[in-house]
Amino acid sequence: MAKVLATEIRVGNLIEWDKRIWRVLKSYHVHVGGRGGAFMQVEMKDIEAGTKTNQRIRTEDKVERAFVEPREMTFLYQDGDNYIFMDKENYEQLNLSQEFLEGQYEYLLPNTDVQVNFHNDRAIGVQLPASVVLTITDTEPNLKGATATSSYKPATMETGLVVMVPPFVLQGEKIKINTDSGEYIERA
């Protein structure tokens, strides 16, 4: 296993914490002025028990990354609450539940390439691309004279994901979204 700095922890990573393997669900860099210093606020889920925990890890600390076998796969389609992936090397299919993909399934469109991590021949996590392009299916209409200000409006994507977008972005447009933070990046 390899040690990495706490600042290198990303959503979807697998880390060893308290002698268990955890999948990172959320990861925020927090900097508190003054004495507090900076730390990473990490929400993670135990892959065996399914329990969740929040941990504060100092930015200068190192954590163990779990040894995993990454496999390049393509998301094919959704079948009810199951998501079907295909291994790019041997064309085997893998079913993952919506619960397993918690917080990630809303970024998946058919033919999206992802990395599925395996530990002891069992799927334990999915690593999404850094950003995805999705189409807006519903948002408030554009206001005349609206410019890129600090006011944002909610927009529903084709996958059901809701993202805050600038007022000039319209329904039917494709936008690029950061998969780590779930934030609008730019028009695509």
Model description:
- This protein has no helices and 16 strands.
- It has strands at residues 2-5, 14-17, 20-32, 37-46, 52-58, 62-65, 69-79, 82-87, 93-97, 112-119, 122-127, 131-139, 153-157, 162-165, 174-178, 184-187.
- The strands form three sheets. It has a six-stranded antiparallel β-sheet, with no helix packed on it. Strands 9-8-7-10-11 form a five-stranded antiparallel β-sheet, with no helix packed on it.
- The radius of gyration is 18 Å and the shape is flat.
- The model has no long low-confidence stretch (mean pLDDT 87).
- This is Elongation factor P.
- Its main location: cytoplasm.
- GO terms for molecular function: translation elongation factor activity.
- Pathway: Protein biosynthesis; polypeptide chain elongation.
Question: The biggest beta sheet, please?
Answer: 6 strands, antiparallel
State the low-pLDDT regions, or none: none
The CATH architecture assignment of the largest domain turns out to be Roll
Shape descriptor = flat
Overall mean confidence score, pLDDT: 87
- Secondary-structure content class: mainly beta
> Into which percentage range does the β-strand content fall?
over 45%
Q: In angstroms, what is the radius of gyration?
A: 18 Å
The percentage helix is: under 10%
Question: In short, what is this structure?
Answer:
The chain is built from no helices and 16 strands. The protein is an all-beta fold and 188 residues long. This is Elongation factor P.
